[in-house]
Design a protein that fits this description.
Length: 107
């Protein structure tokens, strides 16, 4: 139920934005989660915008070479692959899986 999940994710986004600030990596992870829900709803444009915002936040907070920046780039590559679907709705790349860096972000 992606639409129902968005209610909770948007609530989380509001809390993290108020408490941690919109430049915090945890806020960026929330943006990624919301973006992934939008992908499930076939709203690729919104997903792209949110993933781009997450990338900018990770770069600003952690620097351009942090593994979380690489993870955000992976999400954007996935969106790009989905936007490149052919007329039959088949993805242009067979696997656009997303992995996360194996470490926790300290706040």
């Amino acid at each position: 139920k992606p639409r129902e999940a968005l209610v909770y994710l948007e609530r989380q986004r509001g809390i993290f934005g108020r408490v941690l600030g919109t430049e915090h990596p945890e806020y960026a992870m929330t943006l990624q989660n919301i973006a992934e829900n939008h992908l499930q709803l076939a709203d690729v444009a919104t997903a792209r915008t949110l993933h781009e915002q997450a990338l900018a936040t990770f770069e600003g907070a952690l620097g351009p070479n942090d593994p979380w920046v690489g993870n955000a780039l992976n999400y954007l590559a996935r969106v790009e692959a989905l936007q490149g679907e052919d007329a039959d709705g088949q993805a242009g790349t067979a696997s656009a899986g997303v992995t996360s860096p194996d470490r926790h972000i300290a706040g």
